[in-house]
Write a structure and sequence with these properties.
This protein is an alpha+beta fold. The protein folds into three domains: 102 residues, Acyl-CoA dehydrogenase/oxidase, N-terminal domain (Butyryl-Coa Dehydrogenase, subunit A, domain 1); 106 residues, Butyryl-CoA Dehydrogenase, subunit A, domain 2, CATH 2.40.110; 148 residues, Butyryl-CoA Dehydrogenase, subunit A, domain 3, CATH 1.20.140. It contains ten helices and nine strands. The mean pLDDT is 92. It binds flavin-adenine dinucleotide.
């Protein structure tokens, strides 16, 4: 990918200082969300452009963030956060960069799964390392032929003398080649359906694991995404056959509310940048925020930030309850879509400057689109919501 030309952000425009002007309901700052804010201010904002230019994932910076064991119990080296406490952490991370935040969400899911379900050698080798960030984790369910329809997966695990190996091909492996451990969802028989699915941990350094070159993407060159070829790769069983698909879906539910919170943070940041610009840019003798048409666009974005925040908080509180999955679907459907709409509006507020490659709004708009897809598309969330409507109506 090589290095990029120097920034083209014009010197005659206001500097892109983080203004944090988006108001509204916020929970009081917790130690964890303060840590996330400091991580973003001190490490993400100043370095994001250089990580992108070098196409290098900042693994040491992430390891030192103190945010790699969010859901791991304190006696295992984590922060032991509730989902409600994690909402603000992911919103802060989303303000820094949605793609980096997504990778940290995925790592945290794997760190929680290994520390929650593993025993013996697996727990010993990777539990503490994942919680501390010394090792990075990736969650791998998608295959070339199966994305939304995860039950169409073909990757096959085989048990011989009490040991498992896996053969198959995974696609869209975020942190492919960079992560140390991969939570791999695989079938354990040739029977159709998913009643035989299990979840395994595969080590990236295993001789049976190879990665393709990173995909070229619309944004976030620092985040490698690859295919992963598994050829009789050695695997640790994490969740037994029969429970693998439901465990994967439960992990994805948590990731969905992370993504909703990240989307809220991304949109709040875009609103800050656009509002600051609109207060300073003058046309026809007044700041553009005093032109009603433009002011209303910003007002609509502010409403979306508030609405996304409330939906995400409600979802976090409902996880594990019967209504949890639908509450998560509402937040995951709404917040990334709002981020796509809102970053387009914020770009419009910036006029021509919103189109500059080096302007953060262009990056945010590209990342917002990505957030609508990862961990279940907006259409899938609508399916979950509609099925719930049907169930309620037929009671
Ligand atoms: C940046 C990025 C990182 C990712 N990282 C990972 C990762 O680390 N690990 C991992 O396992 N996966 C990862 N993914 C994959 C992601 O989870 C899938 O892309 C996602 O599940 C959608 O699958 P698909 O792209 O195959 O789309 P498809 O399933 O082919 O769907 C195509 C379109 O059809 C729609 N559609 C499908 N079925 C229906 C239906 N029944 N009704 C209505 N509409 C429907 C979808 O919403 C979508 O719009 C990543 C994806 C991206 C973009």
């Amino acid at each position: 990918m090589g290095t990029r030309r120097p920034s083209t952000y014009p010197g005659h425009l206001p500097p892109l200082i983080d203004a944090r002007v988006s108001f509204g309901y916020r929970a009081p700052m917790t130690a964890a969300s303060a840590l996330a804010r400091a991580f973003v201010d001190n490490h993400v904002r100043p370095n994001l452009a250089s990580w992108d230019a070098a196409a290098t994932y900042p693994r040491e910076v992430v390891a030192a963030s103190g945010l790699t064991g969010l859901f791991v119990a304190p006696d295992k080296g984590g922060l032991g956060l509730s989902y409600g406490e994690a909402v603000d952490v992911f919103e802060e991370l989303g303000r820094g960069d949605g793609s980096l935040a997504f990778s940290m969400s995925m790592h945290n899911a794997v760190a929680a799964a290994v520390n929650g379900a593993a025993t013996g050698v697996l727990l010993e080798r990777w539990g503490g390392a994942l919680a501390s960030g010394q090792a990075l984790g990736c969650f791998s369910i998608t295959e070339p032929q199966s994305g939304t329809d995860a039950t169409a997966l073909r990757t096959r695990a085989t048990e011989r003398d009490g040991s498992w190996t896996i053969t198959g091909r995974k696609a869209w492996v975020s942190l492919g080649g960079v992560a140390d451990v991969y939570a791999v969802v695989a079938k354990t028989s040739d029977e159709p359906g998913h009643s035989d699915v299990a979840m395994f941990i595969v080590e990236g350094a295993d001789p049976g694991v190879t990665f393709s070159a990173p995909y070229r993407k619309a944004a976030s060159d620092f985040l490698p995404i690859t295919d992963m070829e598994l050829t009789e790769a050695n695997a640790f069983l994490l969740v037994p056959p029969g429970s693998g698909m439901s465990a994967a879906l439960a992990a994805i539910d948590v990731a969905r509310f992370d993504i909703a919170a990240i989307s809220v943070g991304l949109l709040a940041e875009a609103l800050d940048v656009a509002t600051r610009y609109a207060c300073q840019r003058v046309t026809f003798g007044k700041p553009i925020i005093e032109h009603q048409g433009l002011a209303w666009m910003l007002a609509d974005v502010a409403t979306d930030v508030e609405a996304g925040r409330h939906l995400t908080r409600a979802a976090a509180e409902a996880i594990g309850m019967p209504e949890g999955r639908v509450a998560i679907a509402h937040a995951k459907r709404f917040a990334p879509d709002a981020a796509v709409r809102g970053t387009a509006a914020c770009s419009e507020v910036l006029g021509a400057y919103g189109w500059l490659h080096d302007h953060p709004i262009a990056r945010m708009a590209a990342v917002a689109t990505m957030l609508t897809v990862v961990d279940g598309t907006a259409e899938v969330q609508r399916i979950v919501i509609a099925r719930d409507l049907q169930r309620r109506a037929s009671k």
